[in-house]
């Protein structure tokens, strides 16, 4: 945790810590500073029953780009419908660097999308897709706070593309957003023909795995929020 304490903590980084660390560890990372992630600028951290401030694990919706709708991207040739419902894609025999992908699904009106569908698929450590079965494929539903969490591995590389994860996101009874997520500081980002910097996850190594965070923002009619 020492490297976390030494690094400047932005709002989005605080969000990531709140998602993946127990409250005491997240607070330790603040090195004595009180900071909350809430819906208004400079909201204080919320105290628990003992009076200890606890980070509120929700998007801030106050930064300039927090309410930008997530950009759509091509589905690609390897989508398979009817994937199994699961929050972990890890199975026996799957090699690669462990990855925890976590975040939220929010509306552009800054409301969590309860029950949003998220369908993920990506290449294995060798850059190959399973087009016969459902290896490294799965869907899940966001909680009532819009939060999701996926255990998987870092996707491998295949010719012509940078490292990425495919995803479909859908608010209940609304259109499907098909897009891709990318990783920071990848050599292939600059040469990838469809790479979009707005789709780059926040990435951090925490203990023995990579931890990525991303908030999907969907255009949801106000009367359905």
Describe the structure.
It contains 3 helices and 10 strands, in the order αααββββββββββ. It is mainly beta and 225 residues long. The protein has 2 domains: 53 residues, no CATH class; 127 residues, Protocatechuate 3,4-Dioxygenase, subunit A (Sandwich), CATH 2.60.130.10. A 4-stranded mixed β-sheet has the order 6-3-10-9, with helices on one face. The protein is globular and about 45 Å long. The N and C termini lie far apart (38 Å).
Structural class: mainly beta
| Cα shape | globular
Number of discrete domains = 2
Query: How would you state the average pLDDT, rounded?
Result: 80
What are the main properties of this structure?
225 residues; 4-stranded antiparallel sheet; disordered N terminus; 4-stranded mixed sheet; 3 helices; mainly beta; Protocatechuate 3,4-Dioxygenase, subunit A; 10 strands; globular
Brief summary:
This protein has 225 residues and is mainly beta.
Protein topology:
Layout: H1 2-6, H2 11-20, H3 23-29, E1 46-47, E2 53-54, E3 98-107, E4 117-121, E5 137-141, E6 147-153, E7 164-170, E8 176-182, E9 202-206, E10 209-218
């Amino acid at each position: 945790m020492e490297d976390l304490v030494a690094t400047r903590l932005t709002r989005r980084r605080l969000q990531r810590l709140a998602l993946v660390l127990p409250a005491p560890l997240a607070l330790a990372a603040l090195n004595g500073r009180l900071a909350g992630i809430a819906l208004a600028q400079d909201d204080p951290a919320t105290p628990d029953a003992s009076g200890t401030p606890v980070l509120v694990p929700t998007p801030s919706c106050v930064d300039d780009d927090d309410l930008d709708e997530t950009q759509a991207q091509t589905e690609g040739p390897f989508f398979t419908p009817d994937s199994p419902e699961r929050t972990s894609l890890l199975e026996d025999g799957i090699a690669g660097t462990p990855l925890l992908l976590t975040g939220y699904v929010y509306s552009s009106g800054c409301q969590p999308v309860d029950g949003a569908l998220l369908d993920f698929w990506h290449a294995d450590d060798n850059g190959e897709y399973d087009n016969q079965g459902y290896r490294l494929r799965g869907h899940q539903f966001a909680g009532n706070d819009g939060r999701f969490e996926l255990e998987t591995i870092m996707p491998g590389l295949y010719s012509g593309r940078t490292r990425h994860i495919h995803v479909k996101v859908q608010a209940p009874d609304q259109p499907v957003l098909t897009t891709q997520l990318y990783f920071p500081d990848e050599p292939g980002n600059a040469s990838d023909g469809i790479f979009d910097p707005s789709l780059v996850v926040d990435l951090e190594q925490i203990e023995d795995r990579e931890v990525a965070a991303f908030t999907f923002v969907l255009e949801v009619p106000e009367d359905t929020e």
